[in-house]
Amino acid sequence: MRIGVDYYPEHWEKERWKIDAEMMAKANIKVVRIGEFAWSLYKPEENRLQFQWMDEILDFFREHNISVVLCTPSATPPKWMTDKYPDIYQDDIHGNPKIFGTRKHYCFNSETYRNFTSSLVEKIAKRYGQHPAVEAWQIDNELGWANTTRCYCEKCRKEFQHWLKTKYGTIEKLNKAYGTVFWSQIYNSFEQVIIPKAGACYDTCHDTQGQNPALLLDYYRFSSDSVIRFAKESIDVIKKFSDKPVTSNFLDAAVNSGTGIDYFKLSENLDFVSWDNYIEFQWGIAEAATVSRDHALLRSYKKQPFWVMEQQSGPCGWSKMGPAPTPGKLRLWTYQAVANGADTVVYFRWRACPFGTEQYWHGILNHDGKPNRRYDEIVQTGAEMEQLSKSLGALKPTAKIAIVKSFDSEWSHSIHKHVENFQYDQFLLSFYKPFYNMGMPVDFVTPYDDLSEYSLVIAPALLMVNEQEKNDLESYANQGGTLLLTFRSGVKDKNNNMLKETVPGVFSELAGVQVEEYDPQFQKVTSSSGVYGKGLSNLWCDIIEPVTAKTLGVYTQDYYAGKSSLTVNHFGKGDVYYLGCDLDDSALQQFMKYLCSQLKLTVPLYSIDGVEKVETTDGKHRVLFVMNHNPYPVIVPLNYIYQNMLTHNQEQGTVSIAANDVALLNLD
Ligand code: GLA
Ligand code: ZN
Questions:
Q1: Are 62 and 129 a contacting pair, CB within 8 Å?
Q2: Ligand 1 pocket residue status of 6, Cβ below 6 Å
Q3: What is the C-alpha radius of gyration for the chain, rounded to an integer number of angstroms?
Q4: For a designed S-S bond to 125, which of 230, 238, 508, 584 qualifies (C-beta 3.0 to 4.6 A apart)?
Q5: Whole-Å CA distances, 299 to 31, 247, 251, 462
């Protein structure tokens, strides 16, 4: 475990670099990430290349023993390029071209842009591929940031048609898959297929709601593939000249919404994954549980340690700022990352920049560059990491519970959400939280992953699976796994069309139920009662008819009072639960506790609100992180006597933890 910073040497006078490097060394900062927006420095004009500035920077860090993550600068095409080659611009969802002025205004399918990118990446990789300062590479910056994954230009339309031809072969097959007989949409050739833009439905919606849902889902898949192909082109070029690992920084789901990129797929091409963690800023304040969930996603994409490539380190925003991180938070956020599987945490940014869009985006240092309270906290954190890493390798929680995350389902739910207020991402989070509260780690998996290491697999609102995925889930249960399915599972095919089988469609046999009818909870709330105690549903109620399953909960209201809300079905050696409704937080917490007790999963310590507990291992040692996200001190009960690895105190019976503080208990 170690720390680093995002640094922009080109923003500062050279004389200052030395002071910065000394201050970094004092804070045990081991790595800097540089160069992700520097296109116009490398190439100020179409036929002029300059590298001397970067030569100097890399040599400087080499001399100062700080290693570098070198980025490819494709997030910011320069002005000469957009002026001369306007076809590199993206079109927005209404078909209007983007403009110069911020960043990420390029189309992933523009051949011009792909060529410009590959050619510059090649020159950079050739020149620095063997530079001793470079320890890793970052492709682009936040692929898909600010809704840029989906472009609606003519270039994309052509590429999409090509993608469809490869997928379907004949237009008849596409027509069948899309059900184009509905509303006279039958296509005669792939060249006729449209890009589903907004505004097709004039009065009732100004978004894409009225478009064909099968077409939309394919367009989302195609867009994700386009970004992944773009990234892959840069990766392949780098690999020709360097054997250093390649990453790209992902966006969080805690405050920003999903990017529309299948991160599982993108991760396959990366050597390690990383993400940008902003917790309290202009655009929102994330709960500790959702940040924990984001870390869990990141450790799941590749099933290996990850980095935080940008970790908030000061008050930040563009036009206005979020709060200053209160004392202890920078250190606590760092430990939260490490506990959940990060091995490097890089702070954004070293020092606040006096100019440009992000002049309010504070780093560790303010604009004045002087050591301050936040710097002192980073110095402390860096010293602790240095000390801990002498005896500990990369730590990782060992999860016995997994939640299925399917990008197909996520996108389908975002196309048509079935009922007001349903959000796939939030629904997944609602299952993560009870375990977070109990201190039990949860991984995220795809339906096609090997699930055998998990005691419990939860597949919330898993709308669609293919034959293979269905078989995999069945054999997981068959061999003794416990599976929890919910309403809106197995009801669609992979074309985003409803199945003709009775709900829950392909999962009927597995769950041992039939759903006679369902009641979307629009402006109503329905109560039920079961092993979860009293429950309230705000989103959805499946009226379940058990076939081979046994009832564990019943509705207590409305015309379906007495009908099943929750069931369990023995399937092979395993159990399959079917939850027909959403539940309020406390009922869901109770239900997850019930499942843990059924599975004899022991819950670590007592639960205290706002206290995150994560048990981790590096393969040799076991460490329990107890993190107090509350603005007040807590006293946490302990079962045994432990050594606190930070204070070196023996903790017996209880451990007291100050506001925003952490205890690292050695479990060996
Ligand atoms: C993002 C980007 C950075 C910077 C910060 C602050 O996450 O990756 O370049 O813009 O946010 O806005
Ligand atoms: Zn495009």
A1: no
A2: no
A3: 26
A4: 238
A5: 21, 14, 14, 21
Q: Does the pLDDT at position 605 exceed 70?
A: no
pLDDT at 312 over 70: yes
The amino acid at 666: N
Average pLDDT in the 18-40 region?
98
Beta-strand relationship, 513-520 and 540-546: antiparallel
End-to-end distance of the chain based on CA atoms, in angstroms? 19
Tell me the best of 247, 276, 313 to mutate to test the pocket of ligand 1, counting ligand atoms within 8 Å of each CB and taking the most. 276
Q: What is the DSSP string of 461-476?
A: T--B--HHHHHHHHHH
Average pLDDT over the chain reads 96
**Token pair in block for residue 631:** 């603005």
Does residue 504 have a cis bond before it (omega within 30 degrees)?
A: yes
CA distance 87 to 552: 59
Residue 204 has pLDDT above 70, yes or no: no
Candidates 458, 480, 668; CA nearest to 573 is: 480
Tell me what pLDDT residue 203 has: 67
Question: Any idea what DSSP says for residue 420?
Answer: T
State the residue for tokens 């996200």.
629
Of 336, 283, 272, 335, the residue nearest 309 (C-alpha): 272
Instruction: Quote the ligand 1 centre to 390 CA distance (angstroms).
Output: 32
- The predicted pLDDT at position 253 comes to 76
Please tell me the number of the ligand nearest to residue 363's CA. 1
Tell me, in angstroms, the distance from the centre of ligand 2 to residue 180's CA.
24
Q: pLDDT per residue over 210-227, tens digit each? A: 899 999 999 999 999 999
Nearest to 581 by CA among 540, 532, 534: 540
Rounded CA gap, 603 and 439, in Å? 7
